[in-house]
Design brief:
Chains A, B, C, D: Residues 4-131 form the Semialdehyde dehydrogenase NAD-binding domain. 4 copies of one chain form a homotetramer. Chain A has 345 residues and is α/β, with parallel strands linked by helices. In chain A, 31% of the residues lie in helices and 22% in strands. In chain A, the strands form 3 sheets. In chain A, strands 3-2-1-4-5-6 form a 6-stranded parallel β-sheet, sandwiched between helices. In chain A, strands 10-7-11-14-13-12 form a 6-stranded mixed β-sheet. In chain A, a hairpin with a 4-residue loop joins strand 13 (303-310) and strand 14 (315-321).
Chain lengths: 345, 345, 345, 345
């Protein structure tokens, strides 16, 4: 039976990915699109400057875009995906939660709030139960679930695999991030052609804190942050899609390169429509993964890793994910599928 | 009084930089150019596919290129710069040394040989005295001096500053390297447009070993490698020139971000023609240094740093240098100036 | 019933596209792969440096690659696709033709030979009958059919539409071509990052001659070249796939912009598996087509056009096609489908 | 004796180029900087986000930025350079002209006004006398002189050479334009990486009209537009600086390729400080000029050409210029030098 869904902030870069991913989805049926006031009342084709490299699904092109208010959502919609700018989301998401909507949100606000589940279905599905705490504290009928930042989500599945096998103590990570992560107008061409930018505002902090929440233990009341020490340096480079990351990890149990690769390879996935069969693909060839060649693996939902080697005191490796699919729209979508599977919708 | 110099391997990308940098040099006078057999006998303009963005100096354009043999070098030439491919250099450099030439070489062979000085004039000029050991062991009249790899030289001045002030214990470094570091044909366009490559063969090992030799202590007989633990991940990105690096360092003495920045800023330079007035420029703005904007600082010879911050257990920062100037031709040239200054030529 | 096919030169960039396109083809069954001597005997996975952004089809990965000789082709294979370098193809293609194979070739040799059909199925399918002439003249049992160069094929469908409606007299065309058109190693990164190259050897001549053969009239014996005057300037730019072209055309009959756009839009396609439903998509938005956004239209087989406007004396417009699909492997494949349809296989 | 000059709109991309070019100018002394209200009162270093790849001249960094009003200009300033956005310039430039200032403007407003000289010093210096007409008509004490658009100025010197020698009848031109031509934020990275855009709003019309005014004859009262027929297609590509253009020209007198090249090579320059010794450099090598390799020729003020060939009915060739130097700030500066030389300042 179809679950009717809506998209808050449907015209932006992540919103467009939601529409692409929902096309032909077996259980989700797109029933509502919202955007800013100036887009409200237009058809989606008119409101969105569509830039995905496949045409807009024809039925979506003709859908009317509504304002981002609970009143604009048809009554029979039960699940909302949010790709609102975080400033807007902070204001607006609570209105939908008061009205009883379940919101799977990619917006960065409230990710570290103690009563908001920050979830990757394959890594910490049990954190969803924090919804009970959330409802108690906020008096909402709905539920707010967040997925992590695109740079965080790229590395966390590999960290989860290592932590499970060897207990992580410290992580140093450098990122090579694609421009799409900043939204359509986030990085100008003059900033990035023949160049790289060694800082992305707020990004380092997100990686350092969200990763510890994702790997934290939920004791029924609180998520206790993982004790590992994480430091990140975030770089923007001239790629369109796909974040590549270099990780240096120290573990309590000694890990050989081969053990570490095997831990990643065998880390268990989840049986949901948008989840890849294997969560982490580990390349033997040290020049892989590469953004342009590997970001589409598993329809953009698989994590790739490679270059696993021992350092003097730990291991180092590289990982990659498609930042606007696994790192944004696909992440929220997968959380939505988990919410349905677990009966929250 | 002019020192007459020659360039071994003058037609390649680094060779072209040598020619650009020697144009108008106050003391070095270009007197010999060598290349492979097929170029020998041609004028330089015919032999080299010139790709620097200023025209070939007119007098050099008409010079005849000779084969890479000692007989092809005029008698009055006393200093040679080498930018031969390392496979060729391994074979050929010794011939010049037997004939008594002083060779300042950018080629990667023999950099870690115990009796070969690996030198950055501002960092370890005293290592030049290893030439005495070299002459004793090899029976050469000449002298072979190497400069480090371009990715090593970008970070080592900053590490030297930190080591002097706080004693380095461990270094984790990720590089974002320009394509020119691989030579003119080293990276194809299909490999790198909209992409990044997370591995550069041999480069990680160079960074991990050369840095420890450069910061090692010379006791009059041997260079004792520095005891710090270094691990590197090397990435190629779509930039033309300028290597950017993210460094995570742990020190024995506690260093605040401000102390670390100050240690870099005040690290002493050297008074040689091609040396920048200030060795390390430290930006306050965390989005700097950037390859396209900052690689030309100090005519390509200054190191830039920025983003200095404390991590839980150490500091992190970014650094940048022009890889074919400070990281190659300019490095050899500066070593040549030091060799003259110290009386080895 | 399946037609068993082989690929000559299967490991290169175009060869890889053939394999991608033949995966799941409804009537063609891949039965033979050839490459150079050094690859012969290896599995395809070992012989090819696979760089398409989807994994190698698993059954193809394990196929053995043979040498490029007729003996290496299983007897029951009837149709061969050729993506050999043209120098090799000149030597080797005739051997297969003597043995009776039908060869649909992307290689540039012999395209202008009077007895070799140069064919785009939607434009000049009748030229296939030149095979009769070819067999008479050469004494072959097989048949050699060529598709045009990638830059030619991008514009010719639009020219055919205009010629049909208004009679073409002169064409001036500038191309902005992707690096993949030069093969994997054809353009180095140092040549093209932050740059453009205003000349591609041989390309201009191909556009100027092949276009006139494609639009020429076949009188049963000869193809009489179209009388239009064509001049081309070919540029390489930093894009991976997709050739964009600016066309200035003068016609005998006066054409308004709207008439010209309509002539393109309504130009008839062909009913073959790999053919797009509509041959030419004409954008209203003048900023389209764009390589990254539009090269995948119609699975890479549709031609896009846009910016149709009147000049003082004619019209101008832009067109685009995926150069390694519609412009190479897909072009040969479509010719193969036509050969089967018309009973030549 | 120094001429004291000011820059209107000094903080933008072209404004920054003005400052770079005025540093060490032998006769112009920078005495005033203006910008928008929000920048007024700040030092230049604080007001401008400096992005040129050499540091801000130290004395300029400390200069105070004023509002863009005549009152903010010191009395002893006699020559103003304008790089205001054209919407602002339309409003504001007349205020300065009423106050008697001579303004050499790069802004696109009023370029085609009958009483405004549109000038390239080497091409149509006599058009400056239109200032008399302008003063009569407008009652200004000052004078407004414009330089053409960056894409126009790249080709017009080559057209002037051909027209002088062979009489131009028709021009078809395709441009490959750098992103800096759209200003710092004009083109987003997502629009242009691995892509090209086949339309630049207004640009084609500028090329088609400005070129005819520049080559037009001034009869003492009016500039009569040149009768040639010009059609342009303008493309944006992923280069930072340097516009490359493919020109197809038809001439009344027959021109061989060699004659055409010679006409360009020998076209006379002008003896002003910022003018290159030779106006047009013509390459023999058909792969040149290229943006990254050739845009800096003549300190960014020389025009490069190459690939001169005969077509069936005319000639074709390529040309290139640095769009923010010869095509913007350098163009206005050179007009300023001409204004001084001719006694208008």
């Amino acid at each position: 039976m179809a679950v009717r869904v809506g998209i808050l902030g449907a015209t932006g870069a992540v919103g467009q990915r939601f529409i692409q991913l929902l096309d032909d989805h077996p259980t989700f049926e797109l029933a509502a699109l919202t955007a800013s006031e100036e887009s409200a009342g237009k058809t989606y084709a008119d409101a969105a400057k569509w830039r995905v490299n496949v045409p807009i699904p024809e039925d979506v092109a003709e859908m009317e875009v509504g304002p981002t208010t609970p009143e604009a959502i048809p009554e029979d919609v039960d699940l909302l995906f949010s790709s609102l700018p975080s400033g807007v989301a902070t204001e607006v998401e609570p209105e939908f939660l008061h009205e009883g909507y379940v919101v799977s949100s990619n917006s960065s606000n409230d990710r570290m709030a103690p009563d908001v589940p920050l979830t990757i279905p394959e890594v910490n599905p049990d954190h969803l139960d924090l919804i009970e705490v959330q409802r108690d504290e906020r008096g909402w009928d709905g539920a707010l679930v967040k997925n992590p930042n695109c740079s965080t989500i790229t590395m966390v599945p590999t960290l989860a695999a290592l932590d499970e096998a060897f207990d992580l103590e410290s992580v140093r990570v450098s990122t090579l991030q694609a421009v799409s992560g900043a939204g359509y107008s986030g990085v100008t061409s003059m900033e990035i052609i023949d160049n790289a930018i060694p800082h992305i505002g707020g990004e380092e902090n997100k990686m350092e804190t969200e990763s510890r929440k994702l790997l934290g233990e939920f004791d029924g009341v609180d998520v206790n942050l993982h004790g590992m020490d994480v430091a990140a340096s975030c770089n923007r480079i001239p790629t369109i899609d796909g974040h590549l990351e270099n990780v240096f990890a120290e573990t309590a149990e000694e890990a050989t390169a081969e053990d570490a690769a095997e831990a990643m390879r065998s880390y268990e996935g989840i049986d949901l429509h948008s989840a890849p069969e294997q969560l982490i693909h580990v390349f033997e060839d040290p020049v892989r993964p590469q953004p342009r060649l590997d970001r589409e693996r598993g329809d953009g939902m698989q994590i790739s890793a490679g270059g696993v080697q021992e350092t003097g005191t730990g291991i180092k490796y590289n990982c990659l994910a498609h930042n606007t699919i696994r790192g944004a729209a696909g992440a929220s979508l997968l959380n939505g599928e988990l919410l349905v599977e677990e009966g929250w919708v």
